[in-house]
Amino acid sequence: MSSFSFKSFSWRKSKSDSGHSFSPEEERFLTENMGTLRVPEIVPSPAEDCDRLKKAFDGWGTDEKALIRILGQRNAAQRKAIRETYVELYNEGLIDRINNELSGDFRKAAILWVYDPAERDARLANEALRSYKKGIHELQVLIEIACATSPHHLMAVRQAYCSLFDCSLEEDIFSTVSMPLRKLLVGMVSSFRHDKEVVDGIVADSEADLLHDAIKAKQINHSGVIWILSTRNFFQLRATFACYKQKYGKPIDQDIVKCGNSDLESLFKIAILCIDTPEKHFAKVINKAIVGLGTDEDSLTRAIVSRAEIDTMKIREEYANMFKSKLDDDVIGDTSGDYKDMLMILLGAKV
Question: Is-cis flag, bond preceding 180, omega within 30?
Fold first, then answer.
């Protein structure tokens, strides 16, 4: 096996890795306005929405359609106001009431949607780490949170995780995931990367070489590789990946197979895809969830709920390009009832 070392390389600090104070506008993720969530031009007050929700719960049987039409057309800030107002007005939590009134996949989708996005992802991460099996299917959730969301969102998830579970996300990964996956996951979730479009071409060129040398030496889990993937901003990494393809003839995620076909290589490929083109990753997640025998409702729900305010328009387009099929039609064909309506309203359909 050839030897490879990062010790001889003097890390050049990219201009994009300096400290920065983020404005609210900068905190919006890179694919702003590409979600499918439809918020009405005139939105009722939180008190009015709560009154309608209370009536939907208290009537002769739950009015599921009313619940879907209210909550499924409110953004994260509006849902937060509804949650806070509901408990003030009725002295009960909205999520607790939803949990008591609904059931099955519809209940899970509704609850995940109503949660604050950071709390939702913290709970999804904890669920993945508490699962008996910790393969790609479970652990890719952590990569999605670390590599397909903004740095500020990742920080919020880590804070929510500590508040909810009395330990850090990194501690739970360390205690529940074995090496070598542990090293990659801890590195990715503990990162804080700059969130501005600044690219250094010299850094992209040199780090493309370093990544290629690591893959050639089958040392992809080297600390230097994880350092690059976990600290450089998304634009810088995309430039590095493009430089890699130009210099070496193949996309880096295709070259990773030279290192093997274990869960480690699969997680690295998912991380690169989530950084480079997250819409492709989530199109794959959705397709895998609905093709074949049975439906993976948890993965389908996670993909649509977590991306509805970010990039589901891009995911829809990528899905059609990759699978020669319409995402909406495939979701409708593989789901039913209120669960189907909940997913479809988040995809922009009228229910």
Answer: yes
CATH of 46-114, one of 2.130.10.10, 1.10.220.10, 3.30.200.20, 3.50.50.60: 1.10.220.10
Residue owning tokens 């050049």: 12
Binding residues for Ca(2+): 57, 59, 61, 101, 290, 294, 334-335
| Known binding residues | 57, 59, 61, 101, 290, 294, 334-335
- Supply the pTM of this predicted model: 0.86
Could you read off the pLDDT of 200-216 as tens digits, one per residue?
899 999 999 999 998 88
For residue 16, pLDDT beyond 70: no
Euclidean distance between CA atoms 204 and 10, whole angstroms: 14
Superfamily of domain covering 197-276: Annexin (1.10.220.10)
Tracing tokens 């609904």 back to the chain, one arrives at 102
Closest CA to 40 of 66, 64, 70, 67: 70
Is a pLDDT exceeding 50 seen at residue 225? yes
Summarize pLDDT for 99-127 with one digit per residue, the tens. Answer: 999 999 999 999 999 999 999 999 999 99
